[in-house]
Amino acid sequence: MHTYPTQAVILAGGQGSRLRPYTDDRPKPMVEIPGTGTPIIGHQLSWLAAEGVTDAVVSCGHLAEVLQEWLAEAVLPLRVTTVVETEPLGRGGGLRYAAARLPDPSEPWYATNGDIWTRFSLREMAAFHAERDATATLALARPRIPWGAVETDAFGHIIDFIESPPSPYLINAGVYVFSPAFTALLPERGDHERTTFPRLARERRLAGYPLPHGAYWRAIDTAKDLAEAAKELDDR
Fold it and tell me: Which superkingdom does the taxonomy of this entry point to (predicted)?
């Protein structure tokens, strides 16, 4: 019988420079998904609550007051605490700083980047994490390549054109399950993806959970991503 995490960190401090002008007056997680009337972080909080999370820590940075004001006024489905870095700590340092505010440091926790819009079973991912006795588990996505691909034969003749094919590689989907011991392995400042994750991978303590077939996943990095998300919403 698995006990599933009930606490989570949302990393919401990025500049969102590639999403300008949307991020000129708000942080990236506060950008609204067109057609929903709800910012990205609102969708994330609803998803986390539906997956059994009762407490979330939101790590703020760029235009933190806009995010904090929305959180203070919104009707939220779980308890939310915010933290603001007084100086840049890097992704790993920021994650560690936010994790210090989780209600129970002896329990596992989820984390997600603040620009991810997705829906899949976090409980199934947590079970996968526990079965492998991992210290950290990354959700893995297979995004579509944004360009058309060309297929050739051995002689060099073009035999087909494929519009936006799936990537042959899995990528870090920006959603995580962490064991309690993971927090102490994070750097005080710096990037855990260059330090902690490679170390855990060498020690076979890092697991990768492929998103289930058909699960919706999109990183909202650019205005084009926002338009694509709106189009996909219409198609669903």
Answer: Bacteria
